């Protein structure tokens, strides 16, 4: 079937040249938005075989498939189809398939995309991590003809990277008048009073005629602007990744009988539209009828900060600003109102995701496709910290081996359409009930939008805590997805629908029953199973900073989205997000899904370190007070009879204190102390300083002491320390005494060889004045000082 090209597009002039180039090598097409590259080029490329078009966003995938199918006068799913998460419409005979990167990566891991001849990577300038990985995999594999489209990147650099010819298409424009609304030319984009400032610009833009497209950083800002624009004489339409099909259709299709107008006095019988959109409208999608673009200059994106991936508001790049302005001027003279200064110091390009996000998922995807990520010809340089962290996580899960290749366990994790951590948790659940619960919880947490919120107010909180006595977010989340929640829980229907789809997909993949016949959830068994599989998710509350929780490696604070109880001391934190703090390196992690647990569970799971505290003797037996410490908190205390090393340590302590084997402790202490001094002063040996306690413990072990009965067979001669030779000991001790008894003054003696100084410390005695030099040993060549309290004086 021949396509309908009755509506010409700027890209059409390159049709023959593109077809000619594709027959012999890869092609780079640099084209502005609206040139038709996403819809025309796949149709031309199908002469070389089956075409796969990789689109970065789901909305673009389904919309472009519909547009191209319409141009062929066919329905979606026949000659033209799509494949996105949870939804696909195509057959093995479909000539052109639009698909998102995640779907394509899974196909590549299965058969290296053997079902396709031509692969088109659309909007490559967005530099999504999955797009960069796919580009590197395709170059490594060298089995497909590649088409790469980019609106803003350096075409010469891309041509070298892809070994491709480069073509440029210029979009049709009626001209765009750009205005900057800022108090000075270098004023950067800001979120302050954003909705109020946008309302004023929208009112002015509607007066010009035509529809208005407003670029905002996220759903939160879209909702705020939607609220403040109520009452204006225009149809206000949200457009972001999770909007309903109805809203998406309203945004991408003109109102009935809509006639674009370029002047305020133009007449039309349609209602004007104000589309409030995220970056989803920046590329790929063409929104008809737009006369004015209002650019907030903001986007919400991730970046690397202090070793973590933090989400924050950022000023857009100059490349993005150009893209946004290009959405106006398609059907008539256009306008772009920028809410920042003309000379605001914006970045040239948005940094690639591989350089600003964690690499765990990308590394697992690469390994599943047969290659360690760092062996692929990537366009970006991988950050060292992110690479090390990702390697450690995947190895800890057992998903990759030491060479970075995928393991059998990794092959189990990767096909599940969720993050590797949740896939790892699901695979580690011991029984069907726990596995079902983890599938449902993962589905709730992997849904981009928050599915539920608790109603505010004390009455609602009382009702909630009566129903969920643990104040456990896991209990609430599972109740919501299984539709068992009380009325005090508000649910986002669209987000819940997506969560249910993901849950169903996971349950199907693991041959588990569907939610309607789900197994009964057993909270304690489930959470203890989680601790066994992923102990790093266990956090304890800081004793001094009650809002902060730590696990010994990182710290998180409770977010307002969590219902964690005020008196809870420990938690499993299933989900966090990171926000940039005020300092240049400060990052705050917020816990959004928590489950309270008992401190004793931590000790029972074998987490933390045991520390021997107070030791007591009861009826001739030694009893240790053993503390288990996890992330700086004591999680359990138990008393138990000393045994093994602890018992030997107790025997050694009692011997040195003189309580056991009379005279042995005093002799050992004296001999060891003089030996250490002997080595230090006369340099007759190079061994390390001897610790009396450690030496005695080793001697007791060597003598085979295991009980009090064994110890009773020893006497002081068995514990003799061979230090200074006997024939030399008395002379050395006289020359370098450790204690001095003078008239009404007792002193301890310290020798500092480095400074050739003898320091006499006041020990006891009624004498007020210090020692005299004539009272002391000769100590030729040594400086002598007397120290009492904090006062130090030279002894003359």
TrEMBL record:
Record flagged with keyword Thylakoid: no
Record InterPro entries: DEAD/DEAH_box_helicase_dom, Helicase-assoc_dom, Helicase_ATP-bd, Helicase_C-like, P-loop_NTPase
A GO MF term: helicase activity
Domain Helicase C-terminal, chain residue ranges per copy: 197-379
Protein origin, superkingdom: Bacteria
Span list, region Disordered: 245-269
Stretches with biased composition (Polar residues): 255-269
Database matches in SMART domains: DEXDc (SM00487), HA2 (SM00847), HELICc (SM00490)
Domain Helicase ATP-binding residue range list: 18-171
Entry-linked SUPFAM superfamilies: P-loop containing nucleoside triphosphate hydrolases
The keyword Hydrolase belongs to this UniProt entry's keyword annotation: yes
Keywords of this entry: ATP-binding, Helicase, Hydrolase, Nucleotide-binding
Descriptive protein name: Helicase-related protein
Species per Swiss-Prot/TrEMBL record: Enterovibrio norvegicus
